[in-house]
């Protein structure tokens, strides 16, 4: 069963992008913003956002309200951020930075996988990533080998119990059961759901 959160993450881009727009122009019926790809470095990202503002103000004579201040800006659309993220450019830059920090720790995982670990509260939980597996049954088999299900099942799985074969364990069913619990899978990456 695919949750709405998984569908959202599966359809998201592998970059964090925001559409930077001036509120005054938007309220006057003009869409003059630009897409900015956030790199995860606050200085670089803020410079890119400031560059959009500068280009916008350089065309002030062509705006509906050329005398206006044009000083309030927002992220009017986004890609790679959770649904309902809001319009705050500051939060978008912070979020991109957290994705970058996790990428440094875990390697070059897809942004949508890192987004799941950060969650809506923007508090990265680095101990929830379980790894990359080909299937739910592969995850179940590794967990059985590691005594996750208990020492007795781990011994059977590893062939350490005389008279029992690991063929007695149904990893496919164990994996299916795991998929109904507190574990998420995105593109073969598995982690415990905590939010």
Polypeptide structure, described:
By secondary structure, the protein is an alpha+beta fold. It has two domains: 126 residues, no CATH class; 69 residues, Arc Repressor Mutant, subunit A (Orthogonal Bundle). It is built from eight helices and six strands; from the N terminus they run αβαβαβααβαααββ. It has a three-stranded antiparallel beta sheet. A three-stranded antiparallel beta sheet has the order 4-6-5. A hairpin with a 2-residue loop joins strand 5 and strand 6. Helix 4 crosses helix 5, helix 6 crosses helix 7 and helix 6 packs across helix 8. The N terminus is likely disordered.
What topology emerges from the helices and strands here?
Blueprint: H1 4-10, E1 16-22, H2 23-27, E2 34-38, H3 42-58, E3 73-79, H4 89-106, H5 111-118, E4 129-132, H6 136-145, H7 151-157, H8 171-179, E5 183-186, E6 189-192
Antiparallel strand pairs: 1-2, 1-3, 4-6, 5-6
Helix pairs in contact: 4-5, 6-7, 6-8
Secondary-structure element sequence?
HEHEHEHHEHHHEE
Residue stretches low in confidence (pLDDT < 50, at least 5 long) are 1-12
Supply the number of helical segments: 8
The biggest beta sheet reads:
3 strands, antiparallel
**Approximate helicity band:** 40-55%
| Spatial arrangement of strands, main beta sheet | 2-1-3
Q: Which class do the helix and strand fractions yield?
A: alpha+beta
> Between the first and last Cα atoms, what is the distance in angstroms?
18 Å
Into how many domains do the coordinates divide? 2
Kindly provide the radius of gyration, computed on alpha-carbon positions and rounded to a whole number of angstroms.
23 Å
Roughly what fraction of the amino acids lie in strands? 15-25%
- SS elements, strand count: 6
Whole-number mean pLDDT: 77
Shape: elongated
